[in-house]
């Protein structure tokens, strides 16, 4: 098991370095710069600013300096938010995004696994077709389309829930953004769970359990659920990435002061350090999530460790 963990850690390091290098180059070759604005700066002032932030150095020197600072946990100063460092902005925005994404992922797992198991136990019935048709709708419609529809129906029309913002931090303000983030993932997890559960229920060891007189509920919980969860566990890494990146758009639509707001504003204002900090931070999180998914998969299926 230790060798399995060590191999996964070694593969994560070059992945993160490639991500940092690509993001560093792409954001600098994009049109515009951090000091562009409606009012043109005097050439000498802009030159002094570029020198102060080391933007006048060759690209390889800037990249080397950034890696050194990153190794010390320093994401650099923000060009747009002059009184804050990128680390401070991430520290203030990430807890909100983590709460939003965590609740959405939890809801997606509970509803998706339940719906997929329900459909698998009633294969080719009207209930099965209804669940699968609903999941296709969830897959086909992106969350940035679902979010305004939820606001229109439940906030503007029925006036049951607030349209945006965090307000006093109560659950009422999180219901709509969490549902908008979770719906596509519920659809994917339900379809994966249905197909996997049907395959497991046809396995010889399930027939043996039925021959021993075990009830359907005990067979599902004690024997079928664990192997049926393997495809869902494999999908947890990409699903977490989708929820994290999707929260950038959802936070902007609902006006939630999370990390996504800083990312969008940083991209619009060409705030190099802020965009790089969010990309590296999100990339590290995704790699860590995938690492834990690999460990969980190795625990569920020991053959993977080989």
Labels describing this entry:
mainly alpha; 306 residues; MetI-like fold; 12 helices
Protein model, in words:
The chain is mostly helical and 306 residues long. The protein has a domain of 172 residues: MetI-like (MetI-like fold). The protein contains twelve helices and no strands. The N and C termini lie close together (9 Å). The mean pLDDT is 79.
Mean pLDDT, to the nearest integer, reads 79
Poorly predicted ranges (pLDDT <50, ≥5 residues)?
Answer: none
**C-alpha end-to-end distance:** 9 Å
Gyration radius over CA: 24 Å
**CATH level 4 superfamily of the domain at 95-266:** MetI-like
Report the portion of residues in β strands: under 5%
How many beta strands in the DSSP annotation? 0
**CATH class designation of the domain at 95-266:** Mainly Alpha
**What is the chain-wise order of helices and strands?**
HHHHHHHHHHHH
Q: Give the CA-based shape.
A: globular
The CATH architecture of the domain at 95-266 would be Orthogonal Bundle
CATH fold name of the domain at 95-266, please?
A: MetI-like fold
Indicate the structural class: mainly alpha
The main pleated sheet reads as: none
Helix content: over 70%
Please, how many helices? 12
Summarize the helices and strands and which ones pair or pack.
Layout: H1 2-29, H2 43-52, H3 59-71, H4 86-121, H5 126-140, H6 143-157, H7 172-201, H8 204-211, H9 216-228, H10 230-254, H11 259-268, H12 272-300
């Amino acid at each position: 098991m230790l060798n399995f963990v060590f191999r996964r850690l070694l593969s994560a390091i070059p992945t993160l370095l490639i991500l940092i290098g690509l993001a560093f180059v792409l954001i600098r070759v994009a049109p515009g710069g951090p000091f562009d604005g409606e009012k043109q700066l005097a050439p000498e002032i802009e030159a002094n600013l570029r020198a102060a932030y080391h933007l006048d150095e060759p690209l390889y020197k800037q990249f080397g300096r950034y890696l050194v600072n990153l190794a010390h946990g320093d994401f650099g100063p923000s060009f747009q938010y002059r009184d804050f460092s990128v680390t401070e902005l991430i520290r203030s925005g990430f807890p909100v995004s983590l709460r939003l994404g965590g609740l959405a992922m939890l809801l997606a797992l509970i509803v998706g696994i339940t719906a997929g198991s329900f459909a698998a136990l009633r294969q080719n019935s009207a209930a099965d077709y209804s669940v699968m048709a609903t999941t296709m709708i969830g897959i086909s419609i992106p969350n940035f389309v679902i979010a305004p529809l939820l606001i229109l129906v439940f906030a503007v029309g029925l006036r049951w829930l607030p349209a945006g913002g965090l307000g006093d931090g109560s659950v009422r303000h999180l219901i709509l953004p969490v549902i908008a983030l979770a719906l596509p993932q519920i659809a994917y997890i339900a379809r994966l769970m249905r197909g996997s559960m049907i395959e497991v229920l046809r396995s010889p060891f399930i027939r043996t359990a039925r021959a021993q007189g075990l009830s359907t509920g005990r067979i599902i919980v004690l024997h079928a659920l664990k192997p049926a969860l393997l495809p869902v566990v494999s999908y947890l890494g990409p699903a977490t990435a989708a929820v994290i990146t999707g929260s950038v758009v959802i936070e902007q639509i609902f006006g939630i002061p999370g990390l996504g707001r800083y990312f969008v504003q940083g991209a619009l204002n060409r705030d190099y350090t802020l965009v790089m900090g969010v990309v590296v931070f999100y990339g590290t999180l995704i790699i860590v999530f995938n690492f834990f998914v690999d460990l969980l998969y190795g625990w569920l299926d020991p053959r993977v460790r080989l």
